[in-house]
Write a structure and sequence with these properties.
The chain is of the alpha/beta class. It has helices at about 20-30, 65-75, 95-105, 120-125, 140-155, 165-170, 205-225, 225-235, and strands spanning about 5-10, 35-40, 50, 60-65, 85-95, 110-115, 120, 130-135, 185-190, 195. The chain starts with a strand and ends with a helix.
Length: about 240
């Protein structure tokens, strides 16, 4: 079973978003496990510090390597199991759907959440944390990033989503964005009295034609909104 172990100075932030909707149901039904380790339990000196000023000067505080090591060593897991350690940081490698798919197949994913200005680089290197970012923007800490990453990961675990076939056609599953979706009413009159119809083909009942239309729309949308993805798809052919 997928087990997420989160090293954080704010364990009370968890499960947070992960306790809602289908993911929350899966957590209750123990389709995955989530545990937090409070970094403050491994503080040093009389003040129980977990962070200190950066050598060389600069703003903010840096998480101490000895604190991170003690927290990691407190984790009791079977060494035979598939385990990875990641540190969430905007300076990491950008996560993507394929990466999340790989994480979702692990037995244990250990996630170090930074706060302050970061973590001492020696802890990251010596303890083999892979540096991962969830996007090119800076958050105040890794806790929300961990929830984003875990939500993306956990929904890929078999049995968590109601309709596993929805995974096959969703955005990024084949390096394309998902086609546009429509629902009732068939003709929608907006508040300015303008009528908007649903594309005809979707109500034709012709499944072959619908599939073809959706594929074309996926390509069109990807070319316009994410040309980088489209180029990648062409190169991967
Ligand atoms: N911590 C702060 N910003 C982050 C980001 N963009 N991705 C992952 N962790 C972060």
């Amino acid at each position: 079973m997928f087990n997420a172990i989160i090293l954080t100075a704010y364990p009370e932030m968890f499960p947070g978003n992960l306790s809602y909707s289908l993911i929350g149901k899966a957590l209750k039904e123990q389709k995955f496990n989530l545990e937090t380790i409070d970094l403050r339990n491994f503080g040093v000196d009389q003040r129980n510090s977990i962070d200190d000023e950066p050598f060389g000067g600069g703003p903010g505080m840096i998480l101490r390597p000895d604190v991170v090591e003690k927290a990691v060593l407190s984790i009791k897991i079977d060494p035979q199991k598939n385990t990875e350690r990641i540190y969430l940081t905007p300076a990491g490698k950008l996560a993507n759907q394929a990466k999340l798919g790989n994480f979702s197949k692990l037995d244990n994913l250990i996630i170090l959440c930074g706060r302050f200005e970061g973590v001492d680089q020696r802890a990251i290197d010596v303890l083999n944390f892979e540096e991962i970012s969830i996007g090119d923007y800076v958050l105040a800490g890794g806790e929300i990033a961990a929830q984003v990453l875990l939500e993306g990961c956990i929904r890929l675990i078999p049995g968590v989503l109601g309709q596993p076939e929805s995974l096959l056609e969703e955005s990024f599953s084949n390096n394309l964005l998902e086609y546009p979706q429509y629902t009732r009413p068939k003709v929608w009159e907006d508040t300015k009295k303008v009528l908007h119809e649903v594309p005809e083909v979707l109500i034709s009942g012709n499944h072959e034609k619908i599939k073809e239309w959706r594929y074309k729309e996926s390509i069109k949308k990807t070319k316009v909104k994410r040309p980088d993805l489209y180029i990648k798809k062409e190169q991967d052919k």
